[in-house]
Fold each of these.
Amino acid sequence: MKKRALIVGLGIAGMSAAIGLREAGWAPVLIEKAAQRRTGGYFINLMPEGLEAAADLGLDNLHTRNPEQGTTWALSRRGHRRPALGWLDQPGRPTAMVRGDVEAALWHKTAGGDQGNDRVNVRFSTAPIEIVEGDNAAEVLLEDVSTGSRYRESFDLVIGADGLRSTVRRLSFGPHEDFMTTWNAMICAFSLPEQAPSFAAQDSLISARTGRAVWVFGLADRAPTALLTYCTKDIAAQFTGNRTERLRAVFDDMVHPAVRHVLDALPDTADYLFDSVHQVKMKRWSTGRVLLTGDAAWCLNLFSGMGTTAALRGGAQLGRVLNEHPEDLDRALAVWEAGLRPLITTHQRMARLKHQWFVPTNRALAGVRSLAMHLAVSARRTTTETRLLQAAAPAPDTLVKQHG
């Protein structure tokens, strides 16, 4: 008889874990509090480790959207534009897509038509209310949030893949405040209906000031997505009042037409992420028969650019260690965590540096960022010119024939 696992959260981490468990011979049950699966979404990227994990999970229909014809522009206070380094220019050459691209591929593999495997049992409008661990199983009280009815089921493993403010983490590990670090920053990410006027369809734009920044990520095959981010010490106040009016007030003096284009798109935006920035730091990601993965366990945060990569890798490696240690759950979970810890620790630290790339938090750092950007762009231009000259230069044997 197959071992049963309850996975809470139908996001990238949850579906990745479900695929990994199924490949290891388990019977996963995937629950989601929402009434239906999310689609669409904002810009994300995959690093090479993420693409490798996607291949391990069998995601052979992953849609990528690298903007092959776009240019990244930095927008000045006076309305000028100049070439800049974009997010996709960072070391490792990340691959561009939107959240929905990854989730669609995972859904197809999990429960949406992958005929080569048994479909995962997916239940919408369902949430955990209580988790009680026993010697041989974890008993979970589940609720149908659409009707209020409750029932209990037993599982060999419970996995919390339910995001930054994880219910599973709260039930089994303690309150959010014990694990969430505060960054005094806010983000708002959403899809634009169309590119800003006077820019090419796949262009990316950056308008950064001290404590505030607007990014537009150009993509192939669809309109760009936008990211507004700003620093604040009063996080609670940001969730009061009208979201659009608050963001307009924060960016009021950034008058470049492209910035106004982004702000003007806000009132009609239904699918967006507006949240405070945090990381989750825990000494252990498991206790007994309860395991956390993805943002619930480590939340690298948006500035890291590694959230999707880490979530996919977590699911792929979980399946691998459970397959290698089928009769020793404690050992499997310990090996899984030991394998992931170095990656997570490194990129949680790197996120602090990347935060300054997204939005410099003071004038001194803004100056350093501007200089570093200028030097990097100049170095890239010099390298490109050198390559062009080398390509245009006649080969040595040609010179011999000409002058011999």
Amino acid sequence: MKRGIFLFFCLTLMIASTESFAQLSKKEKKEWKKKAKEFKKNPASLKQLTEDKQVADNTVTTQTTTISQLNSTISQKDAKIAQLEDELAQLRSQLASAKAELEQLKAAPVNSMDFSKGVVFKVQIGAFKNKNLAKYFDNNPNFGGEARDKEPQKLTIGIFRDYWEADTFKKYMREMGVKDAWIVPYRDGQRVEIKDVLEGVVGDKPTESAN
């Protein structure tokens, strides 16, 4: 039995290491022959060596599988990173486009027909207690007024960005018999005092009374 194990080990070594064994020097061959004799005398050591080799081979196989799995995971993560970088580039492009559109909107001229923002001037033609024309206020931007509980209803005609155009229209109204016509200013849709908006909009023209 011992002889059979020894022959099997020698045969295995010869098959697996024929090329490398042929390259051994005489001294190395002598040393390995000595080891072979030792294994012949102690088959338990040969058995332990064989088992250790099998464990090592199994470990190598397991680690090779693990490395293969890790490489696959890395490849998947690299693909995901590439996808995210592509999406990030698209988002940056969209952001740049949005910023460009915003700059264009900022540079675009203000719609002269939108009187809800900024300072505008209207000509008030009177305040009436017994006349209710509020239903017309929202239908015509050139006709409006203020209706408050227990107060006379104030009516205005015309809406102007330029104070002097409003002033000219006020004079026309007075010439047509509306003696109480006078200019009322609004800022962002809220009525304000005339003194709060005249500076910077009147210019160098002679100033007249707002009444």
